[in-house]
Amino acid sequence: MSENNSHDKKGFVKYANGPSLDEINGKISVPKNMSFWKTLFAYSGPGALVAVGYMDPGNWATSITGGQNFGYLLMSVILISSLIAMLLQYMAAKLGIVSQMDLAQAIRARTSKTLGIVLWIMTELAIMATDIAEVIGGAIALYLLFNIPLTVAVFLTVFDVLILLLLTKIGFRKIEAIVVCLIIVILLVFVYQVVLSNPDWVGAMKGLLPVPETISTGHEVAGMTPLSGALGIIGATVMPHNLYLHSAISQTRKINRKDEEDVARTIRFTTWDSNIQLTFAFFVNALLLIMGVAVFKSGAVQDTSFFGLFDALNNTKMLSNPILISVAKSGVLSTLFAVALLASGQNSTITGTLTGQVIMEGFINLKVPLWARRLITRLISVIPVLICVLMTSGESTLKQHAAINDLIENSQIFLAFALPFSMLPLLMMTNSKWEMGNRFKNTVWVKICGWVSVLTLTFLNLYNMKDSIAGFYGDNPTAAQESQAGILAWIINILIVLLLIWTLTELHRGNKRFINSRS
What subcellular compartments does it reside in (predicted)? Predict the structure, then answer.
């Protein structure tokens, strides 16, 4: 046995069946008997890593484009998405703290090996879809700031693995601090730009109230309907891999498992941390949408890609008021935009890699070095970006930028499809008194809100499947392409429903086995 363990330690791919993120699990001490604010500070950090996923470059594309196309209409979608995110992240953190398993481990313990592999592949694809937005955002930021050719910049994003290697040497608490600082940079950049634009605050506040038009498919602007824009925002905001990540990093603080009050305190302050950081994420996304509406003259920006927005922030003819125009002449607006874009991409690098480790260990009990995992997934994610860049190289600049923007938006919509397969297991397990105990199981209101959220999101995703697939053909698909999209939508919807039934059935059986073993 000792020989096998020694061999595993030296091997590149290792067997993993211990605590989630074993290197940092339960390693951070939290002193007792401190004031509320000092205790909150000691627990703060994991929420920031989770919030990063709610303000990555994918969110920028969907929120700014949604604002350009539909004004303040989709503000309510950002608010509702943020509230759903708070609910789900609370449940994910609670699952990790109480069960001492992350979401991937908990699912794998109740399902067959085959389903575990299927769900692992789906979650890996969701992470890669996120990575596409990070590749594009990081590459464009390098191009805009340093004039590095885009193809070269795409490859340079692969080397962010070196940053990750450096961070793994300095300690998890310092990583949390760096992420918080980058979030503050992003928030301040957009507060500055939006305040200068003097937006219609009354209109923005009214936009927080949902109306039927929010999920309309009849009104189309630049190939986007309000429903497809809403789903893009939901997919970019409520992200499945964040649930896996939070259920793992919520276990980084030391807890006295024999003291139920200590467990309850950890849940309470972890929830405070998460909700505060997600509130920051809500403001960032709201500011992005407001920026799409207010910073530029109505309809002035035809190119809503990152390139187009950067150029528009330099173009005084496109800006909406004299103050913005005077600041834009110095180049400050566009430079700050690119700096925030680069900060957002680097933040997501850290969380995406940690999540990849969580799901690989949890679903298939394998572990590879963080740098290798990051390198492999980033190289795979680079492929569709390079294909997009090369295929549009002969097109006009506007079409090239539109194609890259479409790639980001389509990748974010995919995340919304993957979401139910993490939401459903999370909800079922945190509803269970056998899993969570009578004290920590979900309350009636949390159960109701959870089921309404997952069923609504699942229905909207299935309903909009045809339009989502048609979006891959461009803004003006032909009748034949529309027909193909309809057929593919039916096939994919049936597969999703069957997979959901399979997942629910196995989870139900797994819970029964779990209950019987406890009886």
Answer: Cell membrane; Membrane
